[in-house]
TrEMBL record:
This is Helix-turn-helix transcriptional regulator. Keywords: DNA-binding, Transcription, Transcription regulation. Gene3D superfamilies: Winged helix-like DNA-binding domain superfamily/Winged helix DNA-binding domain. InterPro entries: Sig_transdc_resp-reg_C-effctor, Tscrpt_reg_LuxR_C, WH-like_DNA-bd_sf. Pfam families: GerE (PF00196). It comes from Microvirga terricola.
Length: 263
């Protein structure tokens, strides 16, 4: 199928984005994530963007309207003054009873999808207190476009792009799909970097820092010096990482990271 003129005009920018992401090393995962959000926001004329790691609980409640899906990691391109409290309210809403938007979005888990907010809610939802409190006030957004990118049966990368004045269109959805559909390798790397794929639990910020230094090829003494930790503390963090990823050595961890068979 021939690409629309809008997509054709933006194709060189999409290719440049893919090339740039491939040039980031495994230890630059945070920089790569922020670069992606920045470039896609510019491409989509969005005012802000969010990336999340979504995981499905091993034994969800049978009555869970989200089917066990949760987002333990959420990060924004431009954190707003009220964003922390807004995220807490949003996450709490999942336990108190998630809104229909979240239910419908996670019901489609398992396939790549780009959805407008209007695809997920009834028209009257835009008059709700939830929309006004979470989106208009907390996130300074009049409209949001959502992207779900599955990596395996129990993990997904999620993205959201926010506009404060105008609404997204179907052409915007097509552009986002063109740019993001083939990046499964990158979503896997992001999820691994946050301990949301093979790890038994999400990584803490300090564990993420230690992991990045490991991926740079640094030994335990160099990591201790960089982190200003004692050797014992560093070894403790290394052992925690190995336990979370279910490995026993740096070599096995690197094999997992590179998608190789464990040595």
């Amino acid at each position: 199928m021939t690409a629309s003129p809008a997509l054709s005009d933006r194709q060189p920018r999409i290719h440049a984005l893919w090339d740039a992401l491939a040039d980031f090393s495994s230890s630059q995962i945070v920089d790569a994530r922020q670069y992606l959000l920045h470039e896609l926001s510019a491409l989509l004329e969005a005012d802000n963007a969010m990336w999340s790691g979504a995981v499905r609980l091993a034994q969800p409640n049978l009555n869970d309207p989200l089917g066990g899906w949760r987002m333990p990691v959420m990060t924004y391109l431009h954190p707003l003054p009220s964003i922390d409290s807004t995220i807490r309210d949003y996450q709490q809403s999942y336990e108190d009873g998630p809104d229909m938007k979240s239910v419908r979005f996670h019901a489609q888990a398992g396939r790549f999808r780009v959805l407008l907010m209007a695809d997920l809610v009834e028209p009257e939802w835009f008059e709700s207190d939830f929309y006004r409190h979470i989106f208009r006030k907390g996130m300074n957004a009049i409209d949001v476009m959502f992207v779900g990118a599955p990596v395996n049966a129990d993990t997904e990368a999620g993205l959201a792009f926010f506009r404060s004045e105008t609404r997204f269109t179907r052409d915007d959805c097509a552009l986002a799909e063109q740019a993001l559909r083939s990046l499964r390798w990158f979503w896997r790397r992001l999820l691994l970097g946050h301990g949301l794929m093979l790890a038994g639990a999400p990584l803490t910020p300090v564990e993420q820092q230690v992991l990045q230094l490991l991926l740079q090829g640094k030994n335990s003494k160099q990591i201790a010096a960089d982190m200003e930790h004692s050797p014992n503390t560093t070894n403790e963090y290394l052992q925690r990482l190995y336990r979370k990823f279910g490995v026993s050595s740096r070599a096995e961890l690197m094999a997992l990271w590179l998608g190789q068979t464990r040595p």
